[in-house]
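FORM 7B: Structural annotation worksheet

SECTION A. Query
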Amino acid sequence: MLLVHSRDETERVATALEENGCQVTTVETATSAIATLSNGEFDCLVSEYRLRGDDGLSLVGAVRSVAEELPVVMYADRAFADDAFERDVDRFVAKNGTASHASLVDEVETVTSRTEAVGRDVSDHEPTASDVVRAIDDAPIGISLSDPSLPDNPTVYVNDAWEEITGFDRASILGRNPRILQGPATDPEIKSALSEAVDAEQPVTVEIKNYRPDGTPWWNELSIAPVYDESDDPVHYVGFQKDVTDRKTAERLAEERAAKLIEEKEALERILARVNGVLNEITHVLVEENDRPVIDQQVCDEIVDAEGYGAAWIGSADSASRALELTGTAGLETSEQTESRSIAALPDAVSTAAETNEIACQSARECDADALDAAAVGARRIAVVPLVYGRKRYGLLGIYGETESALDARERRLFDSIGTMIGTRFNAVEMSKVLTADRVVEVTMSIDDPAFPLSAVAATVEAEVEYVGRTTAGEETELFVTTRCDGPLPDLTALPFVEAVREVAGADDVYTLALTVDSASPFAELTDYGASISRVTANSSRARLTVDLPLEYDVRSVLELLESLYDGVELRSRVEHDRRERTPGEFASDLEQQLTSRQQASLEAAHMNGYFEWPRLSDGEEIAKTLGITRQTFHQHLRAAERKLVDTYVEMSNGTS
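SECTION B. Predicted structure
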């Protein structure tokens, strides 16, 4: 039988089976088991679940494809029983220390028991001596005989298979000791074991590395046993040779694979432990701090405090001037901490990250920059991470790894996520500045592109359209617009980006419409870029956008955003002014950020169904049914939405937001 088991308990399990009369061959991996099965005949396979490399269940699946009828007993924790029987094992024995060994022996005996058939009389058909000689000559395995009565126990016979397996012909081996097959990498301990067995007149089986006449190594499963005469004196030693090179190669590859998996697991655990600590500390900084320069410096400090990172910096890359201005550093020499550097003088990873908005990594061997060079700060690698939110980049984060293995693909993916997290926080800080600043920059731009969504709507209704705001619930986005229409409203769903139209209000030919659209562009992108939308109007050929930005904001980035989406984008004015009162659109946008999708749906459903009119046109239970929720849940969402609505209104009225 073949036992596939880890080292810890193998000897005890094998002993229990051997004491019951089993001849046990043990291996430790699934790959070795498959190789062993292909080179021998077995009556049963016993395997545990936890193996190096592939597990026991995978082994069972492989065995069923090459030895469908072989009885298989799974010896594992009880939790794997169902999965084992799904893989078509014959028996399952739950591990319970030595107490389960007896159960294992019983199950093995059960699946291997066979009714012994009564053999027929063959006494008149015994082979002759010539039959035996011919069988040995033609045997498919290598067979040799040596004579211990002659000096150095020389070879006196080999069969045809021996010549084919070893590559030696009879003339070169007869009269010489079989050690001629050995070579420079033959294990000395195995050679000693063979010599000791011959001296002690004991049979022995070993796996030994032999060599063919041309120097090609091969693995020989060699069995040697003495042959005695009537006086019990050894007259010959018979040797059986079998080429097991393929199996040994498979076992070696399996061991290398298992070792590589263990190494990968250990490396991943080290990376996770290191980066997890950095992630926790950076998250703490982002939650507690609101000042961008403070965040920049503390993020760099936290990275350098972690094991494996020698230096870090954060800077903003100006695409126009092709310069990097550092806003936070840690671990750099004083000479490296200058405020601005030409990107051309920096490592290539900086320009790559700035141009592609994707993380870039570079080895110190490949880095030959005038500034911020990995080798100059005593590091082996540098990774540059874009700090992004949506399509907006808020800067670059440079990280220096102290070893060649640092900042590998897995670690870079983690830092890429950290970069997005930092960018998201920077966006929130910037938006807060826009909403609370006493002075802002008012920027007005025109777009001469009929593909602009409001221009397309204006062309359909044949009137000017003004943007009121937008709401997003789940994956559904509604744009609210006002327009004037002398007759019936045309079918706006004919526009490719409009999925549905809802009339919110209408009087004196002036309509407020809610357009369900397939994209919130460009309004969502403008918000992501930190712009507060003041007013957007459009006719069929031209749209005019006015947004507020922080004083220190780079207006070019907003222009570049719109230019990437539309033709005919032009800056019309840039004016600094005291912050005005919030527009209704900003009020709606602020409220949208506070309401959950359920609260917003409940508020809108109540309004549309006349819940706030007197007398009420519908009650809470009727509205709850339309939303697919209970009346109690509807009222909970509605009360929370009403509270947030009133709070936002009061804050706006008092001028506190």
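SECTION C. Observations
The chain has a mean pLDDT of 85. The chain has 20 helices and 24 strands.

SECTION D. Sign-off
Analyst initials: ____
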